[in-house]
What we know:
The complex is a heterotrimer. Chain A has helices spanning 47-54, 82-88, 100-103, 110-122, 126-139, 156-168, 186-203, 214-220, 238-243, 248-256, 295-299; strands spanning 3-16, 19-32, 36-40, 63-72, 75-76, 93-96, 174-178, 206-211, 223-228, 231-237, 305-307, 310-312.
Amino acid sequence: METILALRDLEVQYYSNRKTIRAVNGLSLDMHKGKVLGLVGETGAGKTTLALSILNMIRAPQGKITAGNIRFAGNDVLTMNKHELRNMRGKDVAMIFQDPMTALNPVLTVGDQIAETVLRHEGVSKEAAWKTAETMLETVGIPADRAREYPHQFSGGMKQRVVIALALACNPKLLLADEPTTALDVTIQAQVLDLMRKLIKEQGTSVLFITHSLGLVAENCDEVATMYAGEIVEFGSVKQLFGNPLHPYTKGLFGSLPDLSAVSERLKPIPGLMPDPTNLPSGCFFSPRCPFATEICHNTHPVDIDVEGHMVKCHLYTKKGGKA
Amino acid sequence: MSNTAINIPGGTIAQTARESNLRRFLRRTGRNLGQFWRQLSRNKLAVVSLGLVIVFALVAIFADFLYEYDFVTSNSLENALLKPGESGIVYYHEEDIEHTFILGSDNYGRDILGRLVHGARVSMIIGFATVAIALMVGGVLGAFAGYRGGLFDTIIMRATDILLSIPTILLAIAIVAALGNSFFNLLVAISTSMIPGYIRIVRASIISVKDQEFVEAARCIGAKDFRIVVRHIFPNIFSPIIVQSTLNVGSAINWAASLSFLGLGILPPKPEWGNMLSEAREFIQYAPHLLFAPGITILLTVLAYNLIGDGLRDALDPKLKR
Amino acid sequence: MSARSPITDTPMTDTPILRVKNLKKYFHVAKGNLHAVDDVSFDISKGKTLGMVGESGCGKSTTGRLLVRLHESTSGSIIYDGTEVTSATVRDMGMLRTCMQMIFQDPYSSINPRHTVASIIGEPLKIHKKVHNNLEYEERVRQLMTTVGLAERLYDAYPHELDGGRRQRIGIARALALDPEFIVCDEPVSALDVSIQAQILNLLMNLQEKLGLTYLFITHDLSVVKHISDDIVIMYMGQIVERGPTEELFKKPIHPYGQALLSAIPIPKLNSKRDRIILKSEVSSPINPKPGCRFAPRCAYAQPECSTADPALREVSPGRFAACRLAEQFV
């Protein structure tokens, strides 16, 4: 499998009131060409920070990528100059944000917004760019004659379609979708995801699908990474991770979800709270909440362990024949 | 801590509980103040300004100990237009006294520093009194308009618009001109011109808070309108009002000086920064210090209040907390 | 809008603690009347949970607010334990408030940021003079904090020091302060992360068991509603389109909208691929809605007659109600 994006030992910190917020902590992740990778985690796990880092959009002085490297299609993103970055963003790597209301410019027509992106990255004529914009809108199920309308004239689901059209207009190699349907109703979510699935399959785009919903991952992704306190704690194919979740946190997430097919009396939530990113616990970050935590978990930070091609960052699997 | 109180016999139970409540209240207030001060102290300019304002306030309060009022208002023409630091013999209380004029003297031989000190008192009183009056009237009207809405709101807001369409200083001049020249009328003039600002800010803050879920929650547990406004809404609109008031104290001092400068406020020989400036105009060529002394004092005071206002705005913003 | 069949008035089971009949709420907006809640009738039995689901803007939150009278209804009646809520006097309302409470959606805006945990939880006690001295007050507040699983050391804490889950616990404790029998839960877990969501759901279920509470549980999250509810009503554009016992309704929804809604739930399991019904277009405007079935423009089974008259909510099979002309063919 060809690797399109490789993150190695990435560390991102934010600074506020003399406190250091450790948002991403030594994270390594590979994304494979043409695959959809689901990134699951709760609020504050560092999912959005990760996506912004890939575009090198962490702004000083509030935040900084303090260590590690990011290689996109073989190029080091962190050493790119402004010009190279601008070319990469929007063309090779596109991003869909959670809230379609803020992702669109309210004073430009949706057609103009798409055409502008095409114009900047593809070097075509104005007419051709507008034509592309109309085609893209039709692809996402919006009649071409609505291209001259402004974002406020569209409903929430339609706006998110516009955002998708905007993101896919330049045939990006990588799409970062940050909770693309969280703001939408379920029936609209089904519409939008249905469309997204079709388009990325056609274009062969690789997708980083950031979500807090395991259900959406099961239905839309090929691979899954579970993120906790700025780390990937488990990584595997959807089959591996849903068939046999290894990390206690992933197991906890499954236990927290109501099961639609069975009558369960009570859920089994994970006790406690996400750790404070300004004051992370020693040892494994999950150890204070982990029902299986032992001495070593509280003292030593676990390393990635390969259990039959299924990566997990947990001491429990050290002895069980996994190799570090 | 209450569990131990249960063992105390009869009458003292309530008292113990009350004491612990008081202690808790003090601890909580202390914690809040500490947090507030930590926020404010990040803004060095605001801290310096606060220091300056406190010094001015102390000077205003203890003005009589520094210079006697009669002394700074009585003429001694032989000492007219002394340079800063020069001394002269003043005939005061039927005695000749050797006196050093630290900031020099004016054309009537009056001590400029002394007049500034007593002027500070006038300025402080005007600054705080006008803000207090405007806050009370504007706050109540704005609160009603914002919370009740409807016709009352429309009437109040249109009246406010009309007042706001008249330039502030012009409005103040018109009021003083109509009512006559007195200290009280000056207060009325300045506070009237500040009222529309308060109505708007209180109304806008109330509207932004009153539709939040915690207000609905309060109604849901049976809280009456009065309680909702006083206990739930007011504490949440406190900070914009404090900030506005701090800025307004500066403006009020400025306006009082302007009106006095124009001869519509406090008239000489009463010491006031604006009328000192006005009198000094004639001597700008031979005695510029007459102009600089009140000018710089006004500038520093107004600037200090504005900087404190900015500092408070940041320190009171809950988004910046922690 | 038109008169509904009287069959909707039959109680579902046992003794209803709350009976809602033909409830309507129209908001006047610039373009006309917004039909937020349009002729809704349902009962809730004592000690049970009625789940109310629907998408944003379907009127579920407005219905909840009408029940506790945070909004005044346009017409219809809400009878709580024999007392008419819509026309209750100030004094009666005070009584009703001690029986009916509400838990709000947003744990960040539903508690006053300037009050301490104790004063938020204890405020209902003070308003209704349920305690006689400070000691009693403090003890009751601490007891409530324990009930909802808040550490007592948070007594003097301010909300901004706490996370969403703990804030929601404060909201629950406040609702419990007056020992209510009935609580409207308006999306109480929607703003929370899954692991915290599970903690709060368990808490609500434990409280129901322990205190015999009755819930109206409003949510857009279908897996949550399935987990907690005994019965479910599905709302669409201000109207109830389907009603029935949870298990049966999830096994086989009758109304075409119910079918589409349930098929759209993402399931966190392998190989759970079902026949997903992808609806066309989006919800039409609730302002001065056209007559006829409101779902007809999006419905795959719609026929011309569907757009002429409002379909009544009727009992299609025992215990199962649907507002669809063609309901029989889906049973």
